[in-house]
Each structure stands twice: as structure tokens, then as C-alpha cells.
């Protein structure tokens, strides 16, 4: 499928109870596009195309970040700065995919580093964002506020009953994170996210809960040097969810972080 533009983000999702995956695409077109693969034609076909902004790789026009609710009920598309939009995904009477009008989750004077969908089972969909508020730093000519500005982990909840997005919880981070990983929730795990930062990976969950933190393993560079002094960081991951074996026991899942 030819694309007249720049694909900035790409994610697969599956509606609850469905057997088919769809692809949601964020690009520089100022649109969110959902594609469906047809095996008989051996090609992708456009299911939905919704316009929300101007074309071009602009810092306040969504398209750089995509996050999907693990149950396939909603998708968040975000910009590098300020703007985030949430779309509700559903089916119509003919079992065809439908997409709602965008719900705003904007926050002024805020830079976004990463966005993921949080696995909360069948509760209201929730998204976690790595953000930084630069308002004070922007108004301080001395640079002291910029040096002391902390990154925050913010949880946004989509209230399906009231049909709007609320900022549910925000917590300042000690380290500067660059990547978020969804932890399985519901009956498969404790939910929450893993925050990848320099030399460390930290587990955090919604609310005031104790963190679980571990250093990223290092290799010995020589018998005399204990560890490699290079700063380590992770920027991609893959996971395998727990599965039920023939014996009835549940096999543990795992995450591969690189």
C-alpha cells in the first residue's frame, strides 16, 4: 500500500471478542487512519480516516505517539507537545469497526516523551504518559527552574459512561524516563507500567504504591573493571502474555526489553 507521507507511528489492535487485527497509523497528514488486511486481495484497505489537524510534522499536531487500550476499546494519538486525542473504538450492528469523534486530553506547556495503554481489564480504559511541564522553566531566565524540572508519569482515564477523558493521577519521577512498557493486568498480572530510564527499570502502578526498581544488567569489560561505565537505556520491548496449558495450569509470560 503506497503512502504519500511519513508514517510516524504504527500499532495493531483487536476489538474485544474479535478475531481480526487492525492497524492504526499516525503520520504527518494530520489524520488518524485505520487499516484492515484482506488475505484474498493480499493488501491493506482503509477502514477509517479521520482528520484532526494540519499536515506536516508539527510539534503540537498529534501523530508522533500512539497507544491502544489492550482490550481494543480506545486509542490515544498524541503530539510531542500539548495535544492528545482519544478515539473510542466499537462495532456497529453489522459488526463493522466504528470510531468516535475525538475526545481531548490536552495539557498546555507540556512535552510528551512516550504514551502507552494500561491494562486495567474491563474497567475504564487508561493511558500512561511520560510528560514534562516546562512552564516555570520557560519563564526563568536563570536556568535554575529548567535544571530542577522533574518528569512526571501521568495516568489519563477514559470514562466510557460520561464520554470524556480525565487526568486521574500524576507522580513526579526521580529519574528521567524515555520509554514505557505495559504490564499485563486483570487476571494475567498486576497491571501498571515499567519505566525505562538511564541504568534502571522501575515498576509503577496507579496510586500511591511502593515502586519496584532494578538496575539494567551490565557486562564486565575486563577482570580489573567491575562494570562497563557506559550509560544504558532501553527503547523497545516485546511481551508474551500468560497462556493456559493443556494441563489447566497457566504458563508465565515474559517481557523482552532491549
TrEMBL record:
Record-annotated RSE1/DDB1/CPSF1 first beta-propeller domain positions: 2-221
UniProt KW Nucleus keyword: yes
Name any GO cellular component annotation. Answer: spliceosomal complex
Q: Say if the entry is tagged with keyword Isomerase.
A: no
Spell out the protein name for this chain: SF3B3
Tell me the domain of life. Eukaryota
Mainly localized where? nucleus
- Which keywords does the record carry? mRNA processing, mRNA splicing, Nucleus, Spliceosome
